[in-house]
Design a protein that fits this description.
Layout (H helix, E strand, L loop, with lengths): L6 E5 L2 H18 L4 E4 L6 H12 L9 E4 L1 E3 L10 H8 L11 E2 L8 H14 L5 E4 L21 E4 L2 H6 L12 E4 L2 H5 L3 E6 L5 H9 L17 E6 L13 E3 L3
Parallel strand pairs: 1-10, 1-11, 2-3, 2-6, 3-5, 6-9, 9-10
Antiparallel strand pairs: 4-8, 7-8
Helix pairs in contact: 1-2
Bound molecules: 2-amino-2-deoxy-6-O-phosphono-alpha-D-glucopyranose.
């Protein structure tokens, strides 16, 4: 696989970044008869999902024919507990749109055998025909999904131990309990099989991660750098997240509101 430069759109602020990402998601939903979406969680995604819910309310989009696969879930956290990604997805998207519940997939972090659950998840993605559009955020340490630094570019869906920094970043979601130590996540190779990848990054705390993804060495120390091995990646970031880029990007388009 040869290296490429992802398309990057740098917009003034987080609200505009969410607008752009929503346009891509809606295009994927309109452009496929049976669209398969790869979905992400995290604070960055919340304004994007709000836009999708608003578009659905105005009959601008439907999820009726869609299938979705979330990137990850904590291990040992019940789907109905507040900090789970199941709860996040219900609160921000699933409870508000017409995506058929049976076609909204999230890894089961309560499975007795996580390795078997990971294999089942991979098989389900394959059976659905692969992912048309994979949505990604990025961790401040360069993680995608929960592929922490050190994750092999050939990794598949599996159990992973979370970095202390990642656990601290997510502590607010677990006010009454310790942040889980482990998660189940799609692997980097799983993510790279998506036909189209849209990564959304906003805020100055993501500037180092965006710089390592776009300009750093291709290394497992920065899992997001693996995205440069994919031919169809679009990075959407606000000015703050783009603040540490030093090169003029080949695919860069600066956009005004
Ligand atoms: C989380 C998720 C990632 C997400 C990232 C950033 O822990 N596993 O999928 O992209 O970390 O989250 P946030 O948008 O809250 O900064």
């Amino acid at each position: 696989m040869s290296e490429t430069t992802p398309q990057i759109d740098i917009v003034p602020d987080a609200a505009t970044a969410a607008d752009y990402a929503a346009i891509q998601l809606i295009a994927a939903l309109h452009g496929n008869e049976r669209p398969t979406l790869g979905l992400a969680t995290g604070a960055t995604m919340t304004p994007l999902y709000a836009r999708l819910v608003a578009a659905y309310g105005k009959r601008g989009v439907s999820f009726r024919d869609a299938t979705s696969f979330n990137l990850d879930e904590y291990v040992g956290v019940r789907p109905d507990s507040r900090g789970s990604f199941h709860a996040y997805m219900r609160a921000h998207l699933f409870d508000h749109v017409d995506l058929p519940p049976g076609r909204a997939h999230i890894p089961n972090g309560m499975a007795a055998d996580i390795a078997a659950e990971a294999a089942r998840y991979e098989a389900n993605i394959k059976a659905a025909g692969g992912i048309d559009l994979q949505l990604l955020g990025i961790g401040a340490n360069g993680h995608i999904g929960f592929n922490e630094p050190g994750s092999a570019f050939s990794s598949r869906t599996r159990e992973i131990r979370l970095d202390d920094a990642t656990r601290r970043a997510n502590a607010a979601h677990f006010p009454h309990a310790a942040v889980p130590e482990r998660a189940i996540t799609m692997g980097i190779a799983t993510i790279l099989e998506a036909r189209w990848i849209v990564l959304l990054a906003t805020g100055a705390e993501k500037a180092d991660a965006v710089a390592c993804m776009m300009e750093g060495p291709l290394t497992t120390d920065c899992p997001a750098s693996a995205l440069r091995l994919h031919r169809n990646v679009q990075v959407i970031c606000d000015a703050a997240a783009a603040g540490k880029l030093t090169r003029a990007m080949a695919g860069e388009r600066k956009r005004a509101r």
